Amino acid sequence: MSLSETKLSRDNADDGKDDAGRLQQYKNLTKHEELRRRRTECSVEIRKQKGADLMMKRRNIIDNEDDDLNECESENEDKDKLSNGNQMSNTNRLSNDEIKQILSSNPSEDDMIRCFESLRKSLSKTKNPPIDDVIQSGLINALVQALRVQNDRVQYEAAWALTNIVSGSTSQTMSAVEAGACAPLIELSCHSDGQIAEQALWAVANIAGDSAQLRDYVIECHGVEALMHIMSRIDQFTTSHVRTIAWAFSNMCRHKNPHAPLPVLKVLAKGLAVLVKHSDRQVRQDACWAVSYLTDGPDEQIELARESGVLSTIVSYLDESENLIAPALRTLGNVATGNDSLTQSVIDLGVLDRMVQLMEKTRSTSIMKECCWLISNIIAGTQKQIQAVLDAHLLPILVNILKSGDHKCQFEASWALSNLAQGGTSRQIVAMMEENVVPALCQALNTTHNQDMLNNTLETLYTLMLTVQTSYSHKMDILHDEVEENGGLDALERLQESQSESIYTQAYRIITQFFGDDENDENGQNDENSRASAAGNAQNQWNF
């Protein structure tokens, strides 16, 4: 069997943005790539916390028999995979050589149980499990062969040991797959014995969670068909088993370089529509993260989530604990990056009205940042959608965050206000001035060193001043005074010395276009005086 590594190049969004037609064209060309690029950058925090939480839940099982097997902790936090540390019964530990000798001598079923249980216990060590030793000894082939032995206990111990092997590195996981573990594990995931089925599915989920390549191999081995067969019997399973099912769905949807094929995701979406309504919170949490991965892609994928009917359920998560709020916000924010129809579906579900209450009560910086990001995606839509944000009274909240929020939240708020400036009507843009945005913009110009945030702030200030000058000229003097009184003009003059060409250009443009009149008048008067003096000197020169 040969498995080749799949590599895809990712196109980076072009940061250069043409000022011409910017108010009308922001969403048309740059929205999807730019917002999705930022989503990747800002997603790490919540996903790391989620991964840590899940790994503790799955591995925190105690064995009273051996101190070095007490509490199994994750040694590989950057992997979206789990290792099973539970222990079952008392057996004397056998060395790998002893196991090989027994298994090579026509062993009885009791001998096999003893060998594979001992092997599983060795692989369940809290620290430094001897995965490589097992692989190098050739016993991984024995474990795979044991999956087909018609003895429940042998199959269970073998599946358990393999679960711990495929919770390791990619090379360790690949060793198990290349030894032929994937197909029999998938078959056992549909076993009539619930313990065997759950343990086998756990191993399959770890394989799928390793990489897009191995996820695709699970698909090739009919893993999706097995999952949907399992879903047809979901009411028969324990809560622990359903949690493993939700985890498997999550790993099947997780990788995006490349995404799973669209027909596969369409099938998985049907299962997720059931899981998001499960009574167990951890099941719902994993299922919601799976939907967030499903929607982290092109419009066709996002549409699958809408068609499956999961979104209305996910919106209700915004009233629950933060463990559910986080994946719900990520999912809804992903949907809002889609086309205008998809963005509108978020609004139609009543999300904006829930945002105000959520943003007022949460103390989580990550949740607040995700709220700002979701709102900025909606503001990047049509002017009708921008108005829905304004009607929900979210603009003053965004302004307040820009002025006094955590710096990560300020960054997201700057994107939201910049999107409004780029896509709003004159009336919508001037609404920012009415909500006292100028002090917040000037403060950002004076305090932030983030170039993207500076660019956002400069673009917002420029568009606001241009709009007022063009459509609300009677407010221009007030706007001038606000900018100067809040240190904005001093900041603009300082930013003209920036090493960034875009920041220098924008600061220079604002000063010359909106603050150059007095200086020009003064220069003009000085030029007139100079000319008069020169004329007088010339006249005196010829007066003998």
Key phrases:
disordered N terminus; 544 residues; 71% helix; mainly alpha; disordered C terminus
Uncertain parts:
1-33, 35-79, 86-91, 519-544
Can you count the beta strands? Answer: 0
- How helical, in percent, are the residues? over 70%
Number of helices: 31
* Radius of gyration, in angstroms, nearest whole number: 31 Å
Output the structural class: mainly alpha
Largest sheet: none
Beta content: under 5%
Mean pLDDT: 84
State the end-to-end distance: 109 Å
Name the overall outline: elongated
Q: Any overview of this molecule?
A:
The chain is mostly helical. Helix content is 71%, strand content 0%. It is elongated and about 100 Å long. Residues 83-94 have a biased composition (Polar residues).
Give the topology, please.
Blueprint: H1 22-42, H2 44-59, H3 96-103, H4 109-123, H5 131-137, H6 139-146, H7 152-165, H8 170-178, H9 182-188, H10 194-210, H11 212-220, H12 223-231, H13 239-254, H14 262-275, H15 281-294, H16 299-308, H17 310-316, H18 322-336, H19 340-348, H20 351-361, H21 365-379, H22 383-391, H23 395-404, H24 407-423, H25 426-434, H26 437-447, H27 451-471, H28 476-485, H29 488-495, H30 501-514, H31 517-541
Helix pairs in contact: 1-24, 3-4, 4-7, 6-7, 7-10, 9-10, 10-11, 10-13, 12-14, 13-14, 13-15, 14-15, 14-16, 15-18, 18-21, 20-21, 21-24, 23-24, 23-26, 24-27, 25-27, 26-27, 26-29, 27-30, 29-30
